[in-house]
What does this fold into?
Amino acid sequence: MEREIIKTLDGSTTIHLKEWDECYHSKHGAIQEAKHVFIENGLSLFEDRSINILEIGFGTGLNAFITFLDSNQKKQIINYTGVEAYPVNIVEVAAMNYVSELEADQFDAIFQTMHECEWNLKTEISSTFSLTKRKQFFDEIDDFETFDLIYFDAFGYRVQPELWSTAIFEKMYNSLKPNGVLVTYAARGVVKRSMIEVGFTVEKLPGPPGKREMFRAVK
It folds into this structure.
């Protein structure tokens, strides 16, 4: 599938899949969306404690990188697992401008390490942040009560509805510890119904720029 690098409205880049007209991040602002959905409405709930995070769709590494920046600032210990079936390539990684847009030039080597480190092996990125990238399909996930927080950042329901099915959310539910949280940019009724069916309590929150609403689900 043909891919191109585009600039979103907040100046940060993302990857656009031409055939689907689908982006890895919001066209209204990749960094804005990541901070709003995953940091402000997810990670912020777990301050002052070490946590395990599962990301569904490691992609460009943006969510992992902003989580690292947050953990570095707050000295919060984070064990981060990112699942990705189709890793981005070196050329695409080099075209991402997240380090400069986040004014994090001193951590450029960290961003590169996140993409260069081995798959399926835990890597100590810093004294507070470890990363395990797992190359697998989402329906192969079989963790049980392992994670405190899930960043659910799969491609949209419009192009891949199977990634938003009851079967997938059952895996997410099982992967979370009791009282664990899942956050996603999505706000479709069919998604909410699948979450509720497997046992989640779902709340609708204001969405990031360009999107009216988003979901947060609690086990």
Notes: The radius of gyration is 16 Å. The first strand starts at residue 3 and ends at 7. The mean pLDDT is 96.
